[in-house]
Amino acid sequence: MTGRKDWDTYFMDIAYMASTRSQCSRRHVGAVLVQGKKLLGTAYNGAPMGVPDCSEEGCMLVEEYELHVADGKEEMIRKQRCIRTIHAEQNLLLFTDREDREGSSVYVTDQPCWTCSNMLANSGVREIVFHRPYPKDSEKVSALMAARGIAFRQIQGYEPPEGTDHRIVN
Prior knowledge:
The chain has six helices and seven strands, in the order αββαββααβαβαβ. The chain is α/β, with parallel strands linked by helices. It has a domain at 7-46 and 85-154.
């Protein structure tokens, strides 16, 4: 018999299981809301209810450019993202109550993007725990969480449950 899972592993496993509901062809993301050790909600990324998703209609991709300055050098970074789907973190906020979010933790399979981070920063959560990094927004998201006093950490050495989709397509 194996040992009991720690709480981080337990809740991240649930986030990965939620991600199996996603129909996004680019990335399956799951999120869970936890107050103490009590699970309050789960969500995954996908099209709005009743609307064809990416597996039915294909991704709705847009390109954006962002100025990145490093060592005094300016560089334009091209970003491509699908706008058909609502992100897992956004769905989690839509389907949970503000009072449940106050002082709670969010476990999410992927580091939140800038937009989701802004929403989470104003949601009442005190901690965000993620597994897979999202380098495109990492620095500015980390700075935002530090400014808001929200614990923001990546789980190290974590292995997702068998049967969940771990691929990352950018």
